[in-house]
Every structure is written in structure tokens, then in C-alpha cells.
Design brief:
The structure holds two protein chains of two kinds.
Chain A (H helix, E strand, L loop, with lengths): L16 H17 L14 E6 L5 H12 L3 E6 L11 H9 L5 E6 L4 H8 L3 E7 L5 H15 L6 E5 L6 H12 L3 E5 L15 E3 L2 H7 L2 E4 L15 H8 L3 H7 L4 E3 L12 H4 L6 H20 L5
Parallel strand pairs in A: 1-2, 1-3, 3-4, 5-6, 5-8, 6-7, 8-9
Chain B lengths: L3 E4 L1 H19 L5 E6 L3 H15 L6 E5 L30 E9 L3 H10 L7 E10 L11 E6 L5 E6 L1 H4 L3 E6 L4
Parallel strand pairs in B: 2-3, 2-4, 4-5, 5-6
Antiparallel strand pairs in B: 1-8, 7-8
Helix pairs in contact in B: 1-2
Classes of the chains: A alpha/beta, B alpha/beta.
């Protein structure tokens, strides 16, 4: 019988190929479930999940919440904006207080890199990392690969380019790990200022020319330009960014081959990608959102399975 | 002890035909009836019945689905081995239909309890019936009884009933084996 090799989902870095395979197979079943007239199973009815969001999120939080509800778990939500964190409470204190209310699984987003790993060493609950700083966002990478697998049949051997603001992205690193584990080739493309220095050491190609990158790839995963994280200027102007790294239909038509377009959301329409492309048939952006629920159900279900009565 | 044979391939053949006829007796042209095989092992039994109904009794338009009950089981987190899910394939609504649940062995009744819950996700059926190949009548934990049964057997708890199908196990047979784990 198959089970996950890990007891928390802290990052893709800690997973192996069989884990990803198991998560995908389980997600296939849940995808069928969420397309039924009644989209709910009772598996986790005696499990309580705490969603701790120390940083803003809309779709990830909704997606996790929906996944937990579809599994019949009990949920408590917490966001740092309305909490004692503002009063100076430490992370461990906050979480231990929540766990004292008998919580089994913690889903956490935190602005600091490694917050999930830190927490897993100090508290006795299953931890799912929903994004830690610009480090990892494992469920996003899983749903991205799952969506590629759904669209193209397999991830193995496919060429995927991650375009744009890699520096501030937690999606990029998790995607690189996940894609490489499954035998895909990965390239990043963007202005040099937005590409971290360590990228080539991961065995990832770096390209500054968008046209060349698009000619090479089967899949383009377009990242959001994270203006809110840019304390200094990384490129001269948004207009210049759009001209050099914005995806539009003229560009794609000139390339003349089918490229699967992905975006983890939220989209800056007209900046990294035009509306025309985002809403086109080549775009699987909304499939990503749907698959996100199935993937998160699978991850929560597989981890909950390890919690003994 | 070598496994004792409970049903031979000839007996299974006769039983399958008898059960098919019983279904026809109660459901006639199957217009308002759907057949649901339970994953993983009930679907072999169900697809055999389906073949007989279609080929030998010329019943067309049979609605048939496979139901996986993994996410509805009551022993989640209570076993050492993880549960592995199987495919559910029900591409119709069972609202107001008569449902015949089909499984190979009826033992504690817990799988059927889970299946009854799972079926709710596909609508409110008019009625649900249960057909099993083997009914272990003294092992029930829940008040669940079959409407149609191939053979009733009296088996003590540390023995196991093994149903083998040609498609999967290269023979049609039902065995009684000693469970070595206990």
C-alpha cells in the first residue's frame, strides 16, 4: 500500500517522485468527487484544521478552505491582521494556543522563509506550508504540474519556462523542484534583476530573451510582477517590462506553435500577460484553480491518514 | 490446511444466471433501474452479470456504474495500512431510480453502510437493493441483509472467503482460507 514519505508538507524539496505520483492519483479521485452533484465526502469529519494566514491571500486560502470543507473537516481561520500577533505574540505561542484547542492539521502562510520547517520542529500537528516568504509554495507547484499532466498527458520530457518576477516568487522554486522531480526541463526567463543568482545551480536554464524562451518551451508559466514587494526599482518602467516580457497574442502568433499558458494568479492584466491571452483557449489558468481544490484535498487527506486515533 | 472450495466455476456459472433471472423478475426492462458495482472486487461480479443480461437476455440500455467507497469508510485512521482509493464512474443521476448494489462478499456490512452514504452524493434513489455472491451470515456488525444472494455460508471469523474471477485471477472459484494473520 502506498503512503507519503513525509509527515508534513513543508516543501517540494522534501518529496520524492512516488509522493507526487500518489498525490496526483489521489487528486484524480477527488476531482471526480468535486464534480458530483454533492461534492463532499465524510472522510475527515473528526479532524480539525487551522488555517493560519500571517500574510494576505485570497485564492490559496479559499482553495484550502473549500478542500477542507469538501472533506468534512472542521475549520478555524486565523489571519494575522486581526490577531494578537500585532500585540507581539511569538509564532510558537500563537500556534500552541491554537493547538491547545485540539487542532490536528495546520495550514500556514507566513512571510518568513522556513516558518513551516521551524514550526514542525516545535509543535505536534501536521503542517502544510501554504507559502513561506519567497521560498516554497508546494501545493501551488503540485497543482501546476497536475494541470500540465492533465493538459499534455505527462510532465516528463516537457519544456517549461517560468517567466517574470522569479526573485519574489515562492511559486518558482517549488515549481522548479516539482518539474525536475518529474523529469521536465525548466527554464526561467525575465530581467536579470528579477532572477536570483542561485538559479543556474539548480540545473535550470536562464534566458533573458522572451522570444527565444517561447520558441523553446511547451508550457509558459507566467508569474505576477509583485510590485508590493519591490522596495527598489528592478526595471526602468512597467511600459518597458510589458514590451520586453509581457505575453500578448501577436507574440504567440508570431511564434506559431501551441504553448500552454499558465498563471498562478492574481493576474496583473495588461502587464505580464494580456487579457486576450489569459482568456484564450491555450490558457489553463481556470483549470489550475479547479485543480487546486482537488490537489489540496489529496494532500490533506493523505496527511490526515497518518494521524492515529 | 489447503483452501476449501466453496464454489466451483460451474456453480458460479449457474448462480450468475439465477441471479440475472431474479433481477429480470424484479426489474423487467431495467428502465428505472441502475446497477452499481462496488470497488474493488464487486465490479468483476457486476460486469459478469451485466454481460449475461446483455448477451443472453438481450437487455439493452442497462445503466451501470462503479462506486468506490474509500472516502466513506468508518475505519479511516483506524488501520495500520493506508486506504487506497479506486475509480468511481457513475455518469448518471440516481434520483428516483431503483439501485441494485452489487458486491462479492457480505461480511460485517460496513462497506455496504459506506456505500449507502456514498450513493447519496448522486441523488435520492427510489429504493436500494443489495446483491452479493457470498453472504457470511454470522459475521454481521450492522443490520444489513442482502436482497439477492448467490450462496449463504457459515464461516468463523478467522477464516476468509476469497472470490476469484477469470479476468483477474485466471479462474472462477470461491475458496475458504485460514487467515494466517490471526
Amino acid at each position: 500500500m502506498k503512503k507519503l514519505s513525509v509527515s508534513n508538507l513543508l516543501g517540494i524539496k522534501y518529496l520524492n517522485q512516488q509522493d507526487i505520483q500518489l498525490i496526483f492519483e489521489t487528486a484524480d479521485h477527488f476531482k471526480e468527487v468535486i464534480n458530483r452533484p454533492i461534492k463532499k465526502v465524510p472522510s475527515l469529519r473528526d479532524i480539525t484544521v487551522a488555517n493560519l494566514f500571517f500574510e494576505n491571500s485570497t485564492r490559496t486560502k479559499l482553495s484550502f478552505e473549500l478542500a477542507e470543507k469538501r472533506l468534512s473537516a472542521d475549520i478555524i481561520n486565523f489571519s494575522a491582521a486581526q490577531s494578537s500577533v500585532k500585540k507581539g505574540e511569538t509564532l510558537i505561542d500563537t500556534v500552541n494556543n491554537i493547538l491547545a484547542m485540539k487542532v490536528d492539521i495546520v495550514v500556514m502562510r507566513h512571510p518568513n522563509v522556513g516558518a513551516g520547517v521551524f514550526l514542525s520542529k516545535h509543535v505536534d500537528a501536521k503542517i502544510i506550508n501554504a507559502g513561506d516568504g519567497a521560498h516554497e509554495h508546494p501545493t501551488q507547484a503540485l497543482l501546476d504540474s497536475y494541470s500540465i499532466r492533465e493538459k499534455l498527458g505527462t510532465v516528463k520530457g516537457k519544456k517549461v519556462v517560468i517567466i517574470g518576477d522569479v526573485l519574489h516568487s515562492r511559486v518558482a522554486l517549488s515549481n522548479i523542484y516539482a518539474l525536475q522531480l518529474q523529469g521536465a526541463e525548466v527554464m526561467v526567463c525575465g530581467p536579470t534583476t528579477l532572477i536570483p543568482k542561485y538559479i543556474p545551480s539548480l540545473g535550470v536554464k536562464v534566458e533573458n530573451n522572451l522570444k527565444k524562451a517561447l520558441h523553446w518551451c511547451d508550457v509558459a508559466n507566467v508569474l505576477r510582477v509583485q510590485h508590493e514587494r519591490m522596495d527598489v526599482k528592478y526595471f526602468p518602467s512597467i511600459r518597458e517590462y510589458i514590451q520586453l516580457f509581457g505575453i500578448n497574442s501577436e507574440l504567440l502568433n508570431a511564434i506559431g506553435k501551441e504553448i500552454v499558458i499558465m498563471h498562478p494568479g492574481p493576474i496583473n492584466r495588461g502587464v505580464e500577460i494580456t487579457s486576450e491571452v489569459a482568456d484564450s483557449n491555450d490558457s489553463i489558468i481556470l483549470n489550475q484553480v479547479e485543480n487546486g481544490v482537488a490537489i489540496r484535498m489529496a494532500v490533506i487527506y493523505l496527511l490526515a491518514q497518518q494521524i492515529k486515533k | 490446511m489447503s483452501p476449501k472450495i466453496l464454489l466451483s466455476d460451474k456453480e458460479i456459472h449457474v448462480i450468475l444466471h439465477r441471479l440475472a433471472c431474479q433481477l429480470i423478475e424484479n426489474h423487467d426492462d431495467f428502465k428505472e433501474t441502475v446497477l452499481i458495482g462496488l470497488q474493488p472486487r464487486g465490479v468483476y461480479f457486476a460486469s459478469r452479470l451485466l454481460q449475461i443480461l446483455q448477451k443472453e437476455y438481450l437487455k439493452k440500455d442497462l445503466k451501470y456504474g462503479k462506486l468506490d467507497i474509500t472516502f466513506y469508510r468508518d475505519d479511516f485512521r483506524r488501520r495500520n495500512e493506508p486506504l487506497e482509493a479506486n475509480e468511481t464512474a457513475i455518469d448518471f443521476i440516481i434520483e428516483n431510480k431503483k439501485v441494485v448494489l452489487i458486491d462479492d462478499v457480505l461480511y460485517s456490512g460496513r462497506s455496504i453502510r459506506a456505500a449507502l452514504t456514498a450513493l447519496q452524493a448522486f441523488g435520492r434513489p427510489k429504493a436500494i437493493e443489495l446483491m452479493v455472491l457470498i453472504d457470511r451470515r454470522f459475521s454481521r456488525d450492522l443490520p444489513i441483509q442482502p436482497n439477492y444472494k448467490g450462496r449463504q455460508v457459515d464461516v468463523i471469523n478467522h477464516e476468509k472467503v476469497q472470490v476469484k474471477w477469470l479476468e483477474k485471477d485466471k479462474e472462477d472459484a470461491v475458496y475458504l482460507v485460514k487467515n494466517n494473520l490471526k
